[in-house]
Specification:
By secondary structure, the protein is an alpha/beta fold. The chain is about 45% helix and about 20% strand. The longest helix is centred in the last third of the chain and has 29 residues. The mean pLDDT is about 90.
């Protein structure tokens, strides 16, 4: 076994070892309760980053743990075609060649995107393997593969035939850069410093006219009314009159509508139904005309009159100049307001009238709300249940069409010879009405439509497959809270609709991975990093353990190099401990069963291991992955490595091999507990020690998850007290700067702990550099000129007359006394509360009473020691 653990020479070899053994592929013949996670499919827009590393860590942790528990586990991998995002990056690549997609045409452009997908889909799969993701690669899927494409068409037809999909002309969010409609969720609103332009509209029969304020002067050209609040007395006399649109001279009515805020601007607003969501609703209520003054590329349309053909912002500048020249620009004020931007390309979005396909969402939302209310789906952390309800109860129809070339073509065909429209799963050969040729709708479906089918389309739906029968509903959907509405809600709606059951039982929402500055990692911001860079330097285990233990459900985390280094050090600590055991096995051979009766320290580590197994398992069941990992870290580092191994060394050095069975047994349990977090170092240790230690089975990845045994609480208390004594003596040496080469004489009045301390006296001598150690039950008189140490019901006396500054010692004891008195007062306050004593479990109350009694005893002894020092 090498002296040091080098992940670079281990990880890819071990991954191939698991993969070749078929460890990732579930075998239904072996039975077991199904446990299934479908991976949130990464977009094929490039390489993975640390945000992806987060979900890979948590999902692989759950899968490896449940696999070891005997579940029939399936972790189904795949990637998403990511319509807008992927088309954008490929168009950017074309631009470097001086080309546009229109130069290639639709077919050749789609071929280029497929080439991109093949390249980066392979990179993503490689990165996932390097992270240790134990996915079943035999079931890998892609949202545009033939099976999923058929599922998308089947879902579209199903919803269309039920009247839940319709086509209409509505106001949508339009991204001029992506040249497509986008959903409300894909618009990010950011506060921007802009202006408020006040413009005077002439009013027939009212010489002074009416002033309105706007943040977008160019949309004045599409005004079809001026509106005021019906309760605004300033404008009562103008309601029903006719205003004249500046520049264009169009006559428009002055109307009253409750949507108008009397406090905004002048209290009178322009109404542009084709270019503003609020105005759109006002226009519908008052049957106003809808005048679209912008083209798809946000140049001004023919309805913009003399400004036709200008870019929207060029039109703004010229129109403002013209208004000023005509005396119609009243004033301009600085104004801060929210501007909607495309979440993918950061372009300012325009509300625009457009023919689009929509999902009628309310009939889907109601049953999706019901399954969360009755507990068929549960959210972790629970607070996101309220967030989910709030959004679902106020949901609007979903625009699912996109004006792209990359994606699922909408399965609708039109006949130009007759008014026939065909909606079908399979492409029709001719018009069923007249037999003429058909043309397919040019638009593609929103990426989230196909992603919404992911939990069942990947298992073979709409066919009745064995996978669908076995693994649906899936068990856990683990993803970031930022796509709760984008994806999770839509999967629930479509799963309940298409399958008649929930798509998963649990939704675990992790927080966002942020950089050192606390900013969200994203490709558009350029602050993402390739996890492989970290893996090359520190190993996958270090990255995984940092992510798992540095986060909690629903909360963001910062990824720092310092924490990754700490996790690497932990892997090295485990390796060094395992190598010690390996060397002892090489010297002494395979151990027999632990001797009976066991030594006190063996009983202690066996009991502590049992407690840690129970605690870690409970925390994992509660999705507290970070807390479970921290419990394991403390146990492995502080109890097993720092104490039990050191205690075992003392016996082994004198030829007593009795600790060896417990060393092997405890290490085996530790490896199993840590395997879901750190699969590579644990498997490598397991393989090195497996034969010598007599472990089974052949691979740790399929080893059973450990079960907790019986606790030995007396052994735990006694050894903990001895550990406290050793620590106190070490601290005393450090405070008085006693050289490590110098042995101390110590007398301990151990009281009821005399027997346990005597049993471990050799360990205390070795670990605290004490010789001789005199253990008595009690002392009538304290040794002269000895420094007292009071700990865990014991009094240790250390003769340091030549070394001790008694004034400093009185000060030290005074600080210790103050701390113990403070602890005692806190415990008294806790136990005096009726609610605590009445509601807390009796063992907890008794434990706190015992702690108080111990603190009170320490107070008495410390006061005596302070008095003895004069």
């Amino acid at each position: 076994m090498p002296k040091a653990f080098d992940p670079r020479g281990v990880e890819e070899r071990l991954y191939a070892f698991w993969d070749e053994r078929g460890s990732f592929t579930p075998d239904p013949a072996k039975g077991g309760e199904p446990y299934c996670i479908v991976i949130p499919p990464p977009n094929v827009t490039g390489e993975l980053h640390h945000g992806h590393a987060m979900f890979l860590t948590f999902q692989d942790l759950m899968i490896r743990w449940r696999r070891m528990q005997g579940y029939l586990t399936l972790w189904l991998p795949g990637t998403d075609h990511a319509g807008i995002a992927t088309q954008n990056v490929v168009e950017e690549e074309l631009a470097k060649e001086g080309l546009t997609r229109h130069d290639l045409g639709r077919q050749r452009f789609v071929e280029r995107v497929w080439q991109w997908k093949e390249k980066y889909g392979g990179i993503i799969a490689h990165q996932m393997r390097r992270m240790g993701a134990s996915c079943d690669w035999t079931r890998e899927r892609f949202t545009l593969d033939e099976g999923l494409s058929r599922a998308v068409r089947a879902a579209f037809v199903r919803l269309y035939e039920k009247g839940l999909i319709y086509r209409g002309t509505y106001l949508v969010n339009w991204c001029p850069r992506c040249a497509t409609a986008i959903s409300d969720l894909e618009v990010e609103h950011e506060e921007t410093d802009g202006h408020l332009w006040y413009v005077r509209y002439a009013v027939e029969g009212a010489p002074q006219g009416i002033d309105v304020a706007t943040t977008r002067p160019e949309t004045i050209l599409g005004d079809t009314a001026v509106a005021v609040n019906p309760h605004d007395e300033r404008y009562e006399h103008l309601v029903g009159k006719t205003a004249v649109l500046p520049v264009l001279g169009r006559r428009i009515p002055i109307i009253a509508d409750a949507a108008v805020d009397p406090e905004f601007g002048t209290g009178a607003v322009k109404v542009t139904p084709a270019h503003d969501p609020t105005d759109y609703e006002i226009g519908q209520r008052h049957s106003l005309p809808f005048v679209n003054v912008m083209n798809a590329d946000v140049t001004m349309s023919a309805d913009a009159g003399p400004y036709a053909g200008l870019d929207r912002y060029a039109c703004r500048e010229r129109l403002v100049r013209d208004l000023e020249a005509r005396g119609q620009l009243v004033k301009v004020e600085p104004h801060r307001y929210a501007v909607g931007r495309c979440s993918r390309c950061d372009t300012v979005v325009e509300p625009r009238l457009s023919d689009q396909w929509f999902v009628r969402i309310q009939p889907l939302a109601e049953p999706a709300i019901a399954v969360a209310r009755d507990g068929r789906i549960r959210f972790v952390p629970e607070r996101f249940t309220r967030v989910y309800f709030n959004w679902m109860e106020n949901i609007r129809d979903w625009c699912i069409s996109r004006q792209l070339w990359w994606g699922h073509r909408i399965p609708v065909w039109y006949c130009d010879a007759c008014p026939k429209t065909v909606v079908a799963v399979d492409e029709p050969r001719q018009c069923p009405g007249c037999g003429g040729p058909l043309r397919q709708d040019e638009d593609v479906l929103d990426t989230w439509f196909s992603s919404g089918l992911w939990p069942f389309s990947t298992l073979g739906w709409p066919d009745d497959t064995a996978d669908l029968r076995t693994f649906y509903p899936t068990t856990v959907m683990e993803t970031g809270y930022d796509i709760l509405f984008f994806w999770v809600a839509r999967m629930i709606m479509l799963g309940v609709e298409c399958m008649g059951d929930v798509p998963f039982r649990w939704v675990y929402l992790h927080g966002l991975m942020r950089d050192e500055k606390g900013e969200k990692m994203s490709k558009s911001k350029g602050n993402v990093a390739n996890p492989l860079d970290v893996i090359e330097r520190y190993g996958a285990d270090a990255l995984r353990f940092t992510i798992a233990t540095g986060s909690s459900p629903g909360n963001d985390m910062k990824l720092s190099q310092e924490r990754i280094e700490g996790s690497r050090n932990f892997a090295n600590k485990l390796w060094n401990a395992a190598r010690f055991v390996w060397l002892e096995l090489e010297r002494h051979g395979t151990p027999s069963a632990p001797p009976a009766p066991m030594a006190l320290e063996d009983r202690w580590i066996a009991s502590r291991t049992s407690e840690v197994v129970a605690t870690a398992t409970r925390l994992l069941e509660e999705f507290q992955f970070g807390e479970a990992g921290r419990v394991l870290y403390e146990f492995v580092w502080s109890e097993f490595c720092d104490w039990y191994i050191e205690l075992a060394k003392i016996r082994l050095r004198r030829g007593d091999v009795s600790p060896l069975p417990l060393l092997c047994q405890t290490l085996d349990t530790i490896l199993r507990l840590l395997h879901p977090y750190m699969p590579f170092v644990t498997e490598e240790v397991y393989q090195h020690l497996r034969e010598r230690a007599g472990w089974a089975p052949e691979a740790l990845i399929v080893a059973p998850w450990p079960a907790p045994g019986a606790r030995d609480e007396p052994a735990e208390r006694e050894v903990a007290a001895v550990i406290d004594l050793v620590r106190a003596l070490r601290n005393l040496r450090a405070e008085h700067q006693v050289a490590t080469s110098r042995w101390l004489e110590v007398t301990v009045a151990a009281g009821a702990r005399r027997t346990s301390l005597a049993a471990l006296s050799g360990a205390v001598e070795a670990l605290a550099r004490v010789r001789p150690l005199r253990v008595v039950e009690r002392l009538e008189t304290a040794p002269a000129n000895a420094v007292p140490v009071v700990v865990s019901g014991m009094e240790a006396f250390v003769p340091l007359a030549e070394l001790v500054d008694y004034a400093a010692e009185r000060e030290r004891l005074g600080r210790e006394l103050a701390q113990v008195e403070q602890d005692a007062e806190r415990l008294r306050a806790l136990l005096s509360r009726d609610g605590f004593v009445a509601k807390a479990p009796p063992p907890v109350v008794e434990r706190e009473r015992a702690r108080l009694a111990e603190r009170e005893e320490q107070v008495v002894k410390l006061r005596e020691r302070v008095a003895a020092l004069g």
